[in-house]
Amino acid sequence: MAKVELYTTMWCPYCARAKDLLEHKGVAFEEISLDEEPRRRDEMMKRANGGRTVPQIFINDEHIGGCDDMFALERAGKLDSKLGTAA
Predict the structure, then answer these.
(1) What's the rounded Cα separation, in Å, for the pair 10 and 46?
(2) pLDDT band, very low/low/confident/very high, at 1 (cuts 50, 70, 90)
(3) Predicted structure pTM score
(4) I need a labelling partner for 18 at 20 to 30 A (CA). Which of 39, 56, 73, 77 fits?
C-alpha cells in the first residue's frame, strides 16, 4: 500500500472530497492539518512547488496536486496503480 499524505484544513470542501475518496477506496493516509500545525504550510509549499491551496496530496512522496488532480487520475484509471490497490 502506498504512503499517502494530505495537507488539509478543517473548512475545505475539497479536502473532505479527497479524504472521502481515499476512505471509500480503503486507503490509509496521513492528514497534516494546517489548522493544527500552521507552521507546516511552508513545508507544504516547498514540497508542492509553491502550491498554496489545500489539499496538497502526495503519494509515495510524489506530488500529485489537489483534489481535482486526484479525481482526474481516478477518471483516467491511474489512481489505483499509484495507490497500490490495482487488482
Answers:
(1) 21
(2) confident
(3) 0.95
(4) 39
Please name each of the domains of the chain with its CATH number. 4-83 (3.40.30.10)
Pairing of strands 4-8, 56-59: antiparallel
Q: Which residues pair with 64 in a beta bridge?
A: none
Query: Alpha-carbon dihedral of residues 67, 14, 30, 44, nearest 10 degrees?
Result: 70
User: What are the φ/ψ torsions at residue 70 (nearest 5 degrees)?
Assistant: -65, -40
Q: What percent of the chain has pLDDT over 70?
A: 98
Cis geometry, peptide bond prior to residue 13 (ω within 30 degrees of 0): no
For the record, the C-alpha cell of 32 comes out as 497534516
Task: Read off the amino acid at residue 79.
Answer: L
Contacts 24+ apart (CB under 8 A), 75-81: 79/25, 80/25
Burial of 55 (0-12, 13-18, 19+ CB in 10 A): buried
